[in-house]
């Protein structure tokens, strides 16, 4: 008689709860827990430079996660996400500087204020689609940036606004080693929240609108309501990320948060995979680490045969900006589902190995 198999054959999901579980297997859950535990040890082994890179990946992944709700799960588009990121940064700095509220509470309050503004812009944008929607979100970007430049009482105008260090109940966290755990906690909370949101009725409604809005409307889904909601959710996570960024840098300026930053947020979800929560983190890590890789390549090529043949000279540093555009085009052409899809294929291959199907 054959003994019990260590790895059961087939798919034994027999309930809806099992089909919508966060972790499909015990192994994947254990690897996720082990990964979080290893990240908790990162400040003990990584230098300040690499801790700064990890903190940036965490902050930007929260902002990209919100954009993925709007673009990847609802099928909308936004090229004004950076403005909401900056609004969250200025709001949290303003609250913590002018009210007796610790930074710990100022960050979620900034997220709520940003979500409210996102809902205001989302109401007219929810009735648009295609090119008109792109122009509407671009208008939101410029409206907010103009507000920041004029509202000196709120943003400091041309002078960067200062932000307090992260504090809770009188205890202040300073330095990358301590702030890393703050960002890690917000990343875990945000990704768990969105993962569970997509398993709810509202999450399935967003996906239904993305897949076929006419069928969703026939099924009784209020398109305007859920499209507006997606704008609010995207703005909420952008505001949380912006607040974290403000209290990490301790100074907030609108420099560097124009349309090019919004395009970078779009690049993160395109490269990682639209409609994939795990892909959001992968795409963010890719985009943040790309300049580091290009810096190494630029340094390697500088003064070499390629540099002399193409007469790059000082323009060789612009290879980083060129590379981002080329990579976005390459992913849209050859890997439209992003890194997350490629990772799923790799997992499926090893799961079925040595069989081909």
Automatic annotation (TrEMBL):
GO-annotated cellular components = plasma membrane
Q: Signal peptide position in this chain?
A: none
Q: Which residues cross the membrane?
A: 49-70, 77-95, 101-123, 130-148, 179-198, 229-248, 263-290, 310-334
For this protein, the record's InterPro entries field holds:
ABC_transp_permease, LivM-like
- Show the GO MF annotations: branched-chain amino acid transmembrane transporter activity
Keywords in alphabetical order = Cell membrane, Membrane, Transmembrane, Transmembrane helix
- Where does this protein reside within or beyond the cell? Cell membrane
**What is the topology of this protein in the membrane according to its UniProt annotation?**
Multi-pass membrane protein
What is the first-listed, main subcellular location in coarse terms? membrane
* Name of this chain's protein: Amino acid/amide ABC transporter membrane protein 2 (HAAT family)
> What organism is the protein native to?
Bradyrhizobium stylosanthis
């Amino acid at each position: 008689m054959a003994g019990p198999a260590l790895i059961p054959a087939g798919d034994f999901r027999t309930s809806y709860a099992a089909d919508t579980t966060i972790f499909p297997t015990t192994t994947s859950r254990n690897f996720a827990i082990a990964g979080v535990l290893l990240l908790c040890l990162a400040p003990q082994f990584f230098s300040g430079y690499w801790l700064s890179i990890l903190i940036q990946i965490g902050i930007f992944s929260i902002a990209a996660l919100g954009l993925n709700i709007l673009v990847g799960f609802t099928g909308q588009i936004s090229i004004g996400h950076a403005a909401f990121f900056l609004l969250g940064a200025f709001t949290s700095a303003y609250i913590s500087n002018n009210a007796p509220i610790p930074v710990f509470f100022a960050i979620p309050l900034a997220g709520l204020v940003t979500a409210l503004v996102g809902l205001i812009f989302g109401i007219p944008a929810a009735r648009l689609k295609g090119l008109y929607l792109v122009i509407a979100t671009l208008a939101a970007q410029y409206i907010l940036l103009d507000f920041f430049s004029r509202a000196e009482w709120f943003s400091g105008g041309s002078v960067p606004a200062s932000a307090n260090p992260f504090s809770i109940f009188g205890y202040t966290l300073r330095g990358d080693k301590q702030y890393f755990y703050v960002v890690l906690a917000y990343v875990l909370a945000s990704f768990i929240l969105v993962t569970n949101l997509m398993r709810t009725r509202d999450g399935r409604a967003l996906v239904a609108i993305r897949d076929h809005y006419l069928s969703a409307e026939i099924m009784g889904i209020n398109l305007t309501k859920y499209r507006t909601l997606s704008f609010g959710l995207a703005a909420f996570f952008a505001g949380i990320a912006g607040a974290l960024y403000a209290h990490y840098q301790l100074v907030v300026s609108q420099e560097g948060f124009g349309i090019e930053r919004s395009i970078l947020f779009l690049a993160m979800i395109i490269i990682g995979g639209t409609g994939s929560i795990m892909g959001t983190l992968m795409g963010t890590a890719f985009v943040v680490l790309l300049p580091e890789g290009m810096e190494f390549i630029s340094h390697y090529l500088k003064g070499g045969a390629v540099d002399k043949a193409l007469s790059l000279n000082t323009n060789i540093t612009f290879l980083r900006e060129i590379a981002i555009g080329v990579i976005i085009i390459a992913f849209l052409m050859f890997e439209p589902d992003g890194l997350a899809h490629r990772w799923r294929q790799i997992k499926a291959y090893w799961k079925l190995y040595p069989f081909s199907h």
